[in-house]
Structure formats: structure tokens, C-alpha cells
Amino acid sequence: MNRKNFFRQALLGTAATLGGRHLLGQSDFSSSSTYDKLMAQVGFNRLPNEEVRPPKTVLHRADTRGHANHGWLDSHHSFSFANYYNPERVHFGVLRVLNDDYVAAGQGFGSHPHDNMEIISIPLEGDLEHQDSMGNKAVIRAGDVQVMSAGTGVYHSEYNKNADQPVKFLQIWVFPRERGVTPRYDQITLPADAPRNQLQQVLSPHPDDAGVWIHQDAWFYIGEFDAGQGTTYTLKKPGNGVYAFVLEGDFTLGGQDLHRRDGLGIWDVGQFELRAESDARILLMEVPMSV
Q1: Relative to the CA of 81, which of 4, 11, 87, 268 has its CA 20 to 30 Å away?
Q2: What is the mean pLDDT of residues 102-127?
Q3: Which CATH number fits domain 3-288: 3.40.50.20, 3.30.160.20, 1.20.272.10, 2.60.120.10?
Q4: Phi, psi of 46, rounded to the nearest 5 degrees
């Protein structure tokens, strides 16, 4: 499938044409916005039921994720996205998209629109070049975290900057707590000498806190652990849950064994134990459970 058809067939975005018809700076956002379409997919019937307590965990093994290989893009979807739809895996609270993307050398996503969504990119390998209608042009690499608040609407493109190697990155979408905010962009480089065997905050709701910030009561952490080491995670806000995604290695979390690219959602708890069973790396995403 070529990139033009990829965007036209996507269920989750306003259609984006990679052939050049959408230019950076264009603002012809349709009345049926990305946010409205995504909210329609989430559906109120999937909101937590206060009368019947939901299960406390949901396990998503790596090999059960949605998968799409378009040649230039090889993507695994933890939640329903584009042509992959699973009614049991539409979202985890306000966490709507978690895509594990591989983009071939010299390829990428042409200019396409977003609105009313907090979009976080975490490169794992290679160099990803970003350009948007706000005038930002930047390259993000492994060790960086990028955030874009789409708000009232923005166009952007993402390309593999290198012609001789792929780029691998996580694309994460979070519903904002308020609509119609002014679009914004930011990126940070994490300290190369960050201590091992503890969690490093990389995202929060507060501009003056560690990491990037978004318009949502969410906190993200990345941690590299030696085998046998672990920590206790205490949730920041009542009513939140945590979606853990294993980047490398093996963990035990809340009594559940997890391996590379497994995901585990846990909620209705105040804290839980995390232990590395091998040298390993993990991403924790604490998010509100009510959309």
C-alpha cells in the first residue's frame, strides 16, 4: 500500500494526502474533527462503570498487537488504529494510541493534520525529522522525547532523516482534558547519565516539572534496570491507572510476568511493585481512566 492510500484508509485521522496536496500552514480542518471521530470509536459504553468494579489489570502480549506492514512503514498497534480494530482494545483510559513504528530509510509520513490530541513521540533508534505548520523543524533521536499539542489544529510531517538506516519510534496519542487549546511543540533530551534502577519522569501535566508537559493529568516514566532490581510505583492521582510497556528485557509487575513489547494496564490500586528479571527497560504511562 502506498503512503497516499495508507492515510486515506486510516480510521483514526482526518485523511492526509502524502502526494503534496496538503501543505504546511493549511487550515482546512473538517467539521468532523479527529477528536470527534476518535471519541465516537471510544464510545461511552467503554467508560468505567462505577457500580461494577472493572478488572484491575489488562494484559496485551506483544504478539497479540495489531500489525500493518506497508513496506515503507512497519507498525504494531497496542490499540485499535487504521485498519486494525479490536473492540476490546480501543483505549486505556485517555491513552488512545500506542504505535511501535519502523520507518524505512528515507521514508516517512507526509504533511497531515491533527487536532485536539496530545501526541508524544519517543525515538528508539535512528533520527526522525519533524516539520509543522507552527514553523518548527527539528530532528529527534534516541534519548529524546517530543510532544505536540494539536489543539485547534496543526499540520506536520515526520521523515526518516537517514538514507541508509531505518528509524524506530513510539507514537503515543493521549486525549486532552480540554479542547481547543493553542497548538504547541516541545522536545527534550534526557540526561545520558541518568541513574539506573530507578524511574525517570519524562512527562507530566506541569510546565515547571521534569520532562515535557501535556494538557492532561498524566505522568510518563522511563526506567533502565539491572536484573534483580526494582522499585515501587505510587500513583500520582486517584482515579488514574498505569499502562506499562516493556521496551527491552523482562519484568514482573504486580505479580504478572512481562516480556519485550508486552503491555500491562493496571488500575484501581494506589501502588504496585516492579522488578526486572533481566537487564531491561520499561515505559510507564499513568493516565486518567475516565475519558
Answers
A1: 268
A2: 96
A3: 2.60.120.10
A4: -105, 5
